[in-house]
Amino acid sequence: MTALLLREKIEGIFVIADDGLKAETHASPPPILGLHLPFGFSAKSGVLIASPLNQLSFDMDSTTQIFQHRLSVKLWPPSQGTRLSLVERMTKNLTTPSFISRKYGLLSKEEAEEDAKKIEEVAYATANQNFVKEPDGDGSSAVQIYAKESSRLMLEVLKRGPRAKDGEEVVAQKVTAAYGTVFDISGGPRAFIDAEEAKELLKPLGEPGNSFTKICFSNRSFGLDAARVVEPILSSIKYHLTEVDLSDIVAGRPEAEALEVMNIFSLVLEGCNLRYLNLSNNALGEKGVRAFAELLKSQNNLEELYLMNDGISEEAA
What we know:
5-stranded antiparallel β-sheet, 5-stranded parallel β-sheet
């Protein structure tokens, strides 16, 4: 008798069950600043693992069909149910007391729900643009961007705190405005960046009257030629910046070049008034900390500093 393969869609991922056997994803994304990412599918894997058996099978016309235990799936786009679930989870996160809400205030459920809807729309649109550029992919990059943008914008709303009752603004406008202050080139796969690409990618930063206060260069590996292109651009906007993400910016570069690139970024940003600085994933060590010394020493109002996976020894500390 043919065993039924039941399909149920959980948070946008098809899960196949054979007489109660369910396939499971690997690990969920890690929490960010104590806030769990608001959905549970794997952003990196794209593979479901059948458990507890090593393979799924069923009889059809007296022939046993064996399915390999690894099932490739498309991670993008998410279903409407997944998107609604994301909004619900963000709403819960936005209304849950935390160290951030103690500082900036706790949102009401109605306000959080409005914010969550707009955040999800912006995150989805950003991730979908990336997916359109790589139509043959499984969508894992889009999922990562979706998660990252959702978390980043949610943190923006948490730090903004409740709206003032007098002259209250529409939530959608506030979130969109916050999004418009961020310049982020970290989307897509990790890649080396040369001088020409740097000029093209960073062109918006050089436009007169731009409102960028936060930049994210993470996931792009800068060589000396690219760093020298960045130098005058950052110099022109450094005093407008409040948040800078320079995590993972020298991957694959020789040590001498990587240290010089770090020093260029450090010197050009020296004296800017930051409250957030991320230098993670640069394998800094003592030499790297010294390369960023001028930037670090010039900060007097820093609230958040990230040095994860940097090989910080006792000497470096």
